[in-house]
């Protein structure tokens, strides 16, 4: 099993999903890769292993807004930065696979293994009152007493 090369800053993990030649690692981690594993398989595995994960490009302002929205609610997602050639390996946002292009795939947030979509979809899910229950359902958030599902804006 080979370990991904990664760089951490501002709670973002930069993964190089390409298998480095002649490198090995004795430790096992959810951020490790098997040399025989394809980029698509690695991405699918990461999605299944993390209840809330955002795939983004480096320095993506929309990703920053997604992280801030989720942090305001009390959730801190795993954020993976992908290179342009890795973005195309993301699963499509819609069930029928009708994504317009690979550039429209990033940033993409997955909750409980399901693709929510980009920033617009995440905000729409929040404003409709369905985001918090979805986060509770996947176990990353507990509802506080007195939470009003009809008023999705959380106040302190």
From TrEMBL:
Gene Ontology cellular-component annotations: cytoplasm
Transmembrane segments: none
CDD domains in alphabetical order: GRX_GRXh_1_2_like
UniProt keyword terms in alphabetical order: Cytoplasm, Redox-active center
Matches recorded under Pfam families: Glutaredoxin
Compartments where found: Cytoplasm
Domain of life, per lineage: Eukaryota
Chief location of this protein within or outside the cell: cytoplasm
Low complexity composition bias: residue spans: 23-32
Segments of this protein annotated with the region Disordered: 17-36
InterPro entries for the chain: GlrX-like_pln_2, Glutaredoxin, Glutaredoxin_subgr, Thioredoxin-like_sf
Annotated ranges, domain Glutaredoxin: 52-115
Signal peptide feature range: none
Family recorded in the similarity comment: Belongs to the glutaredoxin family. CC-type subfamily.
Protein name: Glutaredoxin domain-containing protein
